[in-house]
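User: What would this chain look like folded?
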Amino acid sequence: MKHQDPLAWMWIDACEVVSRAERLHRRMFGLARGDDRSPCWEPPVDIFENGRELRVIVLLPGVSTDQIMVGFDQGILTITGSSPFPGPPHAHIHRLEIPYGNFEKKIQLPSPAYEIDQSEYRDGCLTLRFRKIDGSPA
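Assistant: Here's the prediction, encoded as structure tokens.
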């Protein structure tokens, strides 16, 4: 039920939108703990499956390819690396929303068994294509 005063319900709606946006931002670029227990951020990931292929897209804004490491063992995909801070040292920061520093993302891929078939890094997105290993159910 809406409040009788239009300013009050508009303010309540605006606060709910801001709160929802902050939750989404935290979920997208959440802090985690790396294997060495140091803090790191987790890049957002999309996973698509189509027939015999699985595609994983990882958002890594501003990260160069030499800073990305990919591991795949027993169905677990691990993406680690570092995103350097682009600003000058001792800069006065007015706003900082893009994550920097170490990152790590571990993903348990759905069964059946997969192997990396192709990888590409373009426009800040790492795309990994996996194919089902022969003998795996389709």
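Residues 32-132 form a domain with the Immunoglobulin-like fold (CATH 2.60.40.790). If you want, I can go into more detail on any region.
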